[in-house]
């Protein structure tokens, strides 16, 4: 079964804002963090139960992952 990640507009906007904020001081770090967030989320394609369930969106099966 082919899976795909769906990024909400809010999530995409939040990531863009984070990257822009970091880029003001360190463009290289901003690029690494932006790519790292995207790469970390890719784990869900192979392991859809990774991360933890969002309580407020439990019925939809939404999950969250931490990127450090």
Which spans have pLDDT < 50 for at least 5 consecutive residues?
none
Categorize the overall geometry.
elongated
The number of helical segments is: 3
- Biggest sheet strand line-up: 1-2
How many whole angstroms does the radius of gyration measure? 13 Å
DSSP strand count: 2
Please identify the structural class as seen in this structure.
mainly alpha
Largest sheet descriptor: 2 strands, antiparallel
Q: What is the quaternary state of this protein?
A: single chain
Q: Percent helix among the residues?
A: 40-55%
What do the pLDDT scores average to? 85
Q: Measure the end-to-end span.
A: 30 Å
Q: List SSEs in N-to-C order.
A: HHHEE
Proportion of residues in extended strands:
5-15%
Provide a short characterization of the protein structure.
By secondary structure, this protein is mainly alpha-helical. 50% of the residues lie in helices and 6% in strands.
């Amino acid at each position: 079964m082919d899976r795909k990640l769906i990024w909400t507009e809010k999530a995409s906007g939040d990531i863009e804002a984070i990257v822009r904020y970091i880029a003001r001081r360190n463009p290289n770090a901003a690029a690494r963090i932006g790519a790292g967030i995207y790469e970390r989320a890719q784990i869900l394609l192979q392991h859809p139960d990774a991360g933890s369930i969002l309580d407020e969106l439990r019925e939809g099966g939404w999950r969250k992952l931490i990127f450090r």
